[in-house]
Write a structure and sequence with these properties.
By secondary structure, the protein is α+β, with helices and mostly antiparallel strands. The chain has a single domain, classed as Beta-Lactamase, CATH 3.30.450. Helix content is 34%, strand content 26%. It is built from four helices and six strands; from the N terminus they run H-H-E-E-E-H-E-E-E-H. It has a six-stranded antiparallel beta sheet with strand order 3-2-1-6-5-4, sandwiched between helices. The structure holds methionine sulfoxide. The site of methionine sulfoxide has 15 residues, from helix 3 and strand 6.
Length: 160
């Protein structure tokens, strides 16, 4: 049984240290990408408060395709460049969206979502996936969240 848990009262940097350590331990010796994404989605939901969706979209041709996640059923295919996820993929840049209603082209998968963070996963210069976090709280994500998920994405790049 795995028992990775966030430390009570941990600061945000500490939370991401713990999350990255748990993700490292779970994925280090496992070559299966789906298993690794599934376990990391579970960790994201466990470690990060105030999320209504957390998971992966993978690059397949000119689209992003839904991968392992925790949350309500979501849009399956997102064209490169569309929505927050497609923008992160096409630009290879993290997207912090404090108000999804103010993001032109935002794709609403869950009406409860108010803010969003999307981080590209880059391998050999190519965006192979994005990590998408949604929250029902406006402006839930800041630059510390982005830095934490970027560390996670870097670590996972060769493992998914
Ligand atoms: N809101 C995303 C779509 C994915 S769902 O949030 C799970 C977007 O605009 O790309």
């Amino acid at each position: 049984m795995f028992d990775y848990k966030p430390t009570d009262g941990a600061s945000k940097p500490q939370l991401y240290d713990d999350l990255c350590s748990a993700a490292d331990a779970l994925t280090r010796d496992e070559p299966d990408a789906v298993a690794n994404m599934a376990n990391v989605a579970a960790l994201l939901a466990d470690f990060l408060p105030d999320l209504n969706w957390a998971g992966f979209y993978r690059t397949l041709g000119s689209e992003l395709v839904l991968g392992p996640f925790i949350g309500r059923p979501a849009c399956i295919r997102i064209a490169w460049g569309q929505g927050v996820c497609g923008t992160a993929a096409a630009s290879a840049q993290t997207q912090i969206v404090p108000d999804v209603h103010a993001f032109a082209g935002h794709i609403a998968c869950d009406a409860h979502t108010r803010s969003e963070l999307v981080v590209p996963v880059v391998r050999d210069g190519n965006v192979v996936a994005v990590i998408d976090l949604d929250s029902p709280t406006p402006a839930r994500f800041d630059t510390e969240d982005a830095a934490g998920i970027e560390r996670l994405a870097m670590m996972l790049a060769e493992r998914i």
